[in-house]
Amino acid sequence: MWGIVPAAGAGSRIQPLAFSKELLPVGSRLEDGVERPRAVSEYLVDRMLIAGADKICFVVSPGKTDILAYYGGQVGAAYVTYTVQPRPAGLCDAVFRALPLVAPDEDVIVGLPDTVWFPADGLRALPRGVLAFLLFRVERPELFDAVVTDARGGVREIQVKRTGAATPWVWGAFMMPGRVLAELHDLWRAREERDEYFGTLVNAYLAAGGEALGVRAGESYVDVGTLNGYREAIRLLRTMAVEGAERAGESAVVPLADRGWHARAPSLSQPTALADVGGDRQRDVADDGRRRDLDGAPGAPAGDDLRAP
Question: What are the CA-CA distances from residue 270 to residues 187, 197, 300 (Å)?
């Protein structure tokens, strides 16, 4: 199974940064007993590994050599490869850069590397053999790609950043067989590669008789591509750490991001309210055995420590 990580975007919404936005520190992890910052893209990679990916392809721009230096050639049991998107040309172009690597009978996962979402094993809820979207309920679907489904979960339409979206459910990641990826690529080429957003291409795919499913298995979703989104991600991770500790009957180490230190937190009577932060997130894009779990959150992957940097 392949995991495709579109990481060629410039990150203009959260600049200035001295590094690729996919390496923005969000939380931390233990590596060989040493606490280290955790890059935001690690959350997506870990979720792909949990779903069964054994090959990861990063789609990068020519200048993003720091991503190669950070991930190298292997993450846990998964091999890591890289392909280049020469210029910013949207999510469709980025995803199809990996097509030559994917066999028709291989499954493919696609996600956005500047997002943090739960449950960590959400991709396991997606069916095999068909284009399937992992859906999350948000407060402002007009900032994302809202996925309209019928009573059986069949996708009827994807409303790309549409004011007055007909549903609060948006996609956060998707999976398909390699043959469907090839069919979408052929359709994209037939449409003169004008689809920048994946949602408009899928709408054309559905109109041509294609099938897609939406699975409402997502629980929490934050786009970390803006400064406000970064703050919301820290709040989400704090909430998950405390709730996980409460289930385990323990106290939790949670971030105090505005003070830069850690404290033992009391039980939260109410979960932190999350504001959905979107923006032009698709335009902007492209179990490590040494790591161990620190957070205690149910379903969290190894190393998914929920402390702030």
Answer: 47, 37, 21
What predicted TM-score, i.e. pTM, was given to this entire model? Answer: 0.79
Tokens 């980025």 found at: 94
Question: Cα–Cα distances in Å, from 164 out to 110, 124, 136, 206?
Answer: 26, 31, 17, 22
> How far is it, in rounded angstroms, from Cα 115 to Cα 83?
21
CA dihedral 158→162→163→166, nearest 10 degrees, is -10
- What are the structure tokens assigned to 106, written together? 């291989």
Q: Please list the helix, strand and coil fractions of the chain in percent, rounded to the nearest 5, in that order.
A: 30, 30, 40
Instruction: Give the CATH fold of the 2-221 domain.
Output: Spore Coat Polysaccharide Biosynthesis Protein SpsA; Chain A (3.90.550)
> Which of 271, 229, 216, 233 lies closest to 143 in space, CA to CA?
229
33 φψ region: left (φ > 0), alpha (ψ -120 to 50), beta (else): left
Write out pLDDT tens, residues 278-289: 333 433 333 333
Q: Using CA atoms, how far apart are residues 60 and 258, in angstroms rounded to an integer?
A: 32
CB 197 within 8 A of CB 144: no
Where are the chain's structural domains? 2-221, 223-284
**Residue 16 banded pLDDT, cuts 50, 70, 90:** low
The CA radius of gyration of the chain, in Å to the nearest whole number, is 18
Residue 264 host element (H or E): strand 261-265
- pLDDT of the residue at 291: 32
